[in-house]
Amino acid sequence: MDKLRTPDERFEGLVDWPFEPRYVTIDGNLRVHYVDEGTGPTVLLLHGEPTWGYLYRKMIPTLVNSGCRVVVPDLVGFGRSDKPVMRDDYTYGRHLRWLTQTIDEIDTTSPLGTITLFCQDWGGLLGLCHVAQHPDMYRGAVASNTGVPLGRDIGMTDKDPFALWRQFSQDITPFLASECVAGDDSPLPSIPGFQLTEEEKRAYDAPFVDDTYVAGARQFPVLVPTSGVHPSAHLCREIWSLLTDCHVPLTTAFGDNDPVTGPLQGLMSTSVPGAANQPHVVVEEAGHFIQEHQPDRCVDAIMGLLDRTG
């Protein structure tokens, strides 16, 4: 598997990102980057498409100051992690294997103890599966603007929000993560008034030197099953079956202005056993990238779950 590694100088001097880079090696020769800050109960923060750990820069210091150990890996294909160059290198199953190996390697390097997960976007499609497969590793989970597609025909038209986003992700040239996050040119703009500074845009775009680096980012949207015959559909149904038998405490916090994932909140809060008797909140003035819009509310959800499961 051929891969690229973003030069370190692309990450030098990024605004609000003082954290020491750490690495583990998985799948033989893939280097995965992660941040590991603070001491205390472990909080695992998982990003999604098309971001990296930088998405959590506003939450990491607050969680550390609240007495948590905060672990933030970059998924393969994103951030400072290695980037396989072929789109076919990225599958749902392979991403699940990569995440499992990443968590195992970090745990071997410095034992994680029981984990509290916060996941958004693809961080949930992957992280919630890991919770369901390894419930003994988890104290609880917060699902935010994410879920597990059921792998069924959903009658999606080319005007549906996810269809618009998927097409945009394939057409945008050059692929700029900052435009996706801030909604500068996206068909799904962020909430009014939300802007990134030029320094923040540079940080979001740092991992992707040119279009040869974005195979993973372009592939993620097409891995989401929108019909029962999609290649990922069977795996999604298996994951959902595990989740509907999972008793790990699960709370949800969804932005009120996320047209793509909003309907998934009710499904998870009523179908997953661990979600019973847990709070499920709709966060006002928050879009899909809730970590940018309302980071303190995200931290509140994590700390509340820690208090309830302590």
SSE inventory with pairings:
Blueprint: E1 3-4, E2 22-26, E3 30-37, E4 42-46, H1 60-65, E5 69-73, E6 83-84, H2 92-109, E7 115-120, H3 122-133, E8 138-144, H4 161-171, H5 177-182, H6 198-205, H7 215-223, H8 233-243, E9 250-255, H9 264-271, E10 280-283, H10 290-293, H11 295-309
Parallel strand pairs: 4-5, 4-7, 7-8, 8-9, 9-10
Antiparallel strand pairs: 1-6, 2-3, 3-5
Can you describe this structure?
This protein has 310 residues and is an alpha/beta fold. It has a single domain (3-309), classed as 3-Layer(aba) Sandwich (Rossmann fold), CATH 3.40.50.1820. It has helices at 60-65, 92-109, 122-133, 161-171, 177-182, 198-205, 215-223, 233-243, 264-271, 290-293, 295-309; strands at residues 3-4, 22-26, 30-37, 42-46, 69-73, 83-84, 115-120, 138-144, 250-255, 280-283. The strands form two sheets. The chain has an eight-stranded mixed beta sheet with strand order 2-3-5-4-7-8-9-10, with helices on both faces. Strands 1-6 form a two-stranded antiparallel sheet. Helix 2 (92-109) packs across helix 3 (122-133), helix 3 packs across helix 8 (233-243) and helix 4 (161-171) runs antiparallel to helix 7 (215-223). The longest helix is centred in the N-terminal third of the chain and has 18 residues, at 92-109. It starts with a strand and ends with a helix. The mean pLDDT is 93.
